[in-house]
């Protein structure tokens, strides 16, 4: 219980820091978002009109501390402001319309990648120095070493452009009306193949090699040798004795990966014109759309923090040592 | 990201800004809006795919009062009274049929289209026009053209006539008034502040109505009751693309029928893929090197002349702009669009730039500059000709133009340091006059050169970032505003051309191209260099409607 309270306290402290940084950072950027916005009116607006517009956009010259408190209040009540790029659409609805796509695409590809990577890692560690052990890590490392957007462009060019096996862009076909129909869901899956595979192949080797190395370390432990000597079945030895202990660092990395799901694979989304949050973030940054930048950063920061919090709790169940040490610290 | 940023920002309001009356005397002669006549066989039902620019995802917003509304809102759904085109110099009537000046060019009377209907079936009348202009007055944030700076009143005279009273004679300003998009009173009266609402279900008078919407694609369908006749292209589809790369591939593959995207290597990537992949990039402005004239060195004409002579514009076109943007005219005119406005008394050598580093050095020496130990010219008081050049980071073509200029000017003993800035700080530095040299755009090109000149050179011009203030220029502009006579207007423009050529208030580099790619395998009637009837880019508001009304199936 003490451990739990500690974690909750830490969660709130880091949330507070994230929220405050999120408020300060855009205000430290060079240039004024107001001027960017007014650029499109090509200097034809009257000062009164500019002032009226400024007021509507919420640019005011109140002291920073006042702005900070109204920002905090807005966060709690769900008033995250209006996006400048999509004015007057609220930031929350821009995020709501793009977040599910990213979570769906990146989340599912990450989970598959973790699962497959871990299983293969367990297997090749068990059969180390076998053919798979020498071929898989190096060949998959190749994909991890290449920049993701480059892999994405290659896949897009070969399978989308040259062979036309898969669609080149978007999350579903333009000719289908979104709705709970089979053809719509199939279309989503079909469109997710290339971007999903890019993310999958890009992270697979990390999970695999991580698990393999943990496994090999654990396999060298005395209790494994002892268990083997006592004649425990290989499958039980592999999963219950070795993998269960070797998987702990994987879970920590998984937490971080889950947190990163929301920040998405920005470049992959760009290449495949996938309507996710990553694209929105890039768009917001280039357009100096402060409310949207703040909104997306906040979502990203919160998801990383919350994912870490959950894994901290989970880890304490799996590994009692963590709980004790956490309580002492 | 190359130029798309610039286009997204500025093209969205191009229609608001485009203007000019091309000296159309007392009343505008309506050019046909391109009614389709009887060629029924040419109907195209298959959706025509339009990608004005990579926009990412869409929000359901079809309000003509917001620069970021989805494409098609301005021009295809909502219409202005007239559209003044900057490429063809044509004036296209939409909700207006003709207009005339009276009362010493202070009263503008406009007759309205009597057969126009809102897409919900209600008739369009002068009440809607008066209502729209009153909205601008009531909510200044929507008055993005500043029409109420110039107007005193807008009144209806019967159902189909509207009378605009101006504070003073300002003939060219009519383009901004007549180019404003008109909304229906019966819907907008209850919407409150128009700059604060999203409009998911637009009701307009234009040739198209909204078909379907999703964040990834929206469609427009032909308005069967359109007063100009139902367009042959019955369905338009606007898909979202997040980057130039993905849009370029789709374009090369023939998945897009009409686009306004920048493609660097267009022959290889696009034209060679199919004989039907066509493009036409007419100029719609200048790319200009702006000197800050309050800088004592740049305020010196000899320095500006040397800079201009020391810049190799051919190289900028070929290496910086992929050969798409030919060297500009020293007059600042956008040619060939403004051909009829060229001052006949200017000589050929005054009408085109020559690259002449030797002469540049000669001019500097004659003006008393001497080279220092580093090979950089210094003034007699020891100030070196060393400047910073601000440009937007990520606008890759301008970034490489700047590097070229820096190398070229080094050779004539002028040191230029390129400073890449985020758009926000670039823009506030320019408008705050906190720069020495910068590459920037010109605004408001229209069917006559007045608008661009006024914006760039008038003391209170919207983009007079160089801070030019010159009685001769001011007088010529104000004389232009007071007359509807073409010959008299031309005389004033000639004066400003001479100012540009002789005094170099700004240093034009190359023409700014407007991006426009189209596929003519199923559809004909596109504007081309041979038949330049309107600005062809798919992001120019009412011009899009003109193009679409000219298109037919094969």
TrEMBL record, chain A:
GO terms for cellular component: plasma membrane. It is a multi-pass membrane protein. The keyword tRNA processing does not apply. One of its GO terms (biological process) is transmembrane transport. InterPro entries: MetI-like (IPR000515), MetI-like_sf (IPR035906). It is found in: Cell membrane; Membrane. This is Dipeptide transport system permease protein DppB. It comes from Sulfoacidibacillus ferrooxidans. The lineage of its organism: Bacteria, Bacillati, Bacillota, Bacilli, Bacillales. The gene is dppB_1.
Automatic annotation (TrEMBL), chain B:
Residues 91-461 form the Solute-binding protein family domain. Residues 1-27 form the signal peptide. Pfam families: SBP_bac_5. GO terms for molecular function: peptide transmembrane transporter activity. It comes from the Bacteria. Coiled coil: none annotated. GO terms for biological process: peptide transport. InterPro entries: Peptide/Ni-bd, SBP_5, SBP_5_dom. The keyword Metal-binding does not apply. Keywords: Signal. GO terms for cellular component: ATP-binding cassette (ABC) transporter complex; periplasmic space. Transmembrane segments: none annotated. This is Solute-binding protein family 5 domain-containing protein. It comes from Sulfoacidibacillus ferrooxidans.
